Amino acid sequence: MQVSETESTRSQIPYATEEELAQFAGDKSIADYALSRKMALMELSMSSFNETMGWHGTKLSEVPVIVYDYDSKPKYYEFIVMTTAGDPIGTVTAYAKPETETSLAYVLPEVRDYEVITKGGNLKMFKGEYPHTFLGIPSKSGDAPVGLIDEEGNAIAEVPLSDEADAAIARINAYTDEEFAEAYGEETDKATEINRIIEENQIIAENAAVYWEAASDMEADLATVTDEEIIEAINDSKGFYTTYSEHIIPFLNNDTLKRTRWAGWCGPSVLAWIYRGYFRSYNGTNLPLHGTLTTLPGAYDNDGRVKSAYYSYYNFYGPNDHKSSWYSAQSAKIDGGLYRDLANACKIEKGVIGIKGATTPKNLRNAMNSVSGGMLYMKITTNHTDHLWNDDPVVSLTEHLQHYSVAIGIKEGYLHWEWTFKLFGKKHRWYTYHGKSGEWLYVMDNGHLIKNNGYYPYWDHKYPNWNPKYVVIQN
Length: 475
Hints:
Layout: H1 5-12, H2 18-22, H3 33-46, H4 49-53, E1 59-60, E2 65-68, E3 74-82, E4 88-95, E5 104-108, H5 115-118, E6 124-129, E7 132-137, E8 146-150, H6 164-174, H7 177-184, H8 190-222, H9 227-235, E9 240-248, H10 255-258, E10 260-263, H11 266-278, E11 281-282, E12 285-286, H12 299-303, E13 305-307, E14 312-315, H13 324-334, H14 338-346, H15 361-371, E15 376-381, H16 384-389, E16 394-398, E17 403-423, E18 426-444, E19 458-461, E20 469-474
Parallel strand pairs: 2-6, 10-14
Antiparallel strand pairs: 1-3, 2-3, 3-4, 4-5, 5-19, 6-7, 7-8, 9-17, 11-12, 13-14, 15-20, 16-17, 16-20, 17-18, 18-19
């Protein structure tokens, strides 16, 4: 009998076993998976995520797939979104560590391919550049994992830090003074940025403590309430209200554009995608999108524009893809030289910090200005929120000059709930909570981060988010 793709995907999902979950049952630094699930369900229902994702009538898996932190403790719980028929269609990633004032970490439009994990024996997922994960074997709770590798099988030489603030400070300290000035601008310095991280981290910790204390107060009673009862109470506004605000940049919120990407080095690829959002052609060459691309006979095998039923991409991966001679010839065939001109301006053949293909923020900004003829320019920003509301995409630099992604939407929220249970006709146990749930960014890149989401943008709870950012502004 032939197994359907849905059945195959369902059978590959490596849900945590009772024994695996029981290891952390008494660890106060870890949120109970059932509580984290119920809190994520509440937030998912109170926000517009269900509507945005088309998930009305779906159900979250009862147990999660665990994504570990570098201390061999759970960092995230991946709950699978199921249709009424039990088909997996999406992923809600909840926080396993109660370190921020929400349980809802990521909202992903697909279910990742777990095959590499299920075929890997004792391998488990570690947070990596989530949703792009690392793989390894957890050690004793509190200790570093064994044999950490990335999804391509490359060994991770040094186990990263678990604490988000410590890791952010370490990244700043790793910059040379010149690199820091390029990434963060001349108006600040390392000491100022480190102090900002310390201060903001303290506020985050205080708000998180309030949120999770309120969640813990409800834990026993939430365990007696079904998902349907929670959703019904929220839909009927019995005890819940919220002030969520969501905005996706309209001209970039185009399904055919979101299903098209430039697949190459992240700097020029992200800029090429942004450029296509503003302009339909480059040097007189039309830049077709997913859907239009599928009508071009022979386009995929011969000239590098690759497509599937779900996405299309301009392919700039190859054995010498950092060399100008290779990507220039490829670009001349498929995008009128757009990627070539961006990559040359980004100086990816030279690279930075010993990495061929990497680029600096300064080169990135020069590249965007150059290919747009000055119609688009980039600048450092410390206020990405207002820019996104003003329809300006925001490029984020992650790690140490190693990856660029772009945010094209934002969701901000304040949660408010009052939960009253009725027993024998009387009201009991009145819980209240009022607090900010942070912000989520709608993220796109060259495929590195979005590959586990059907190569489609996803919602990322970027709080805390201490990465340097650069806004793209149209003149």
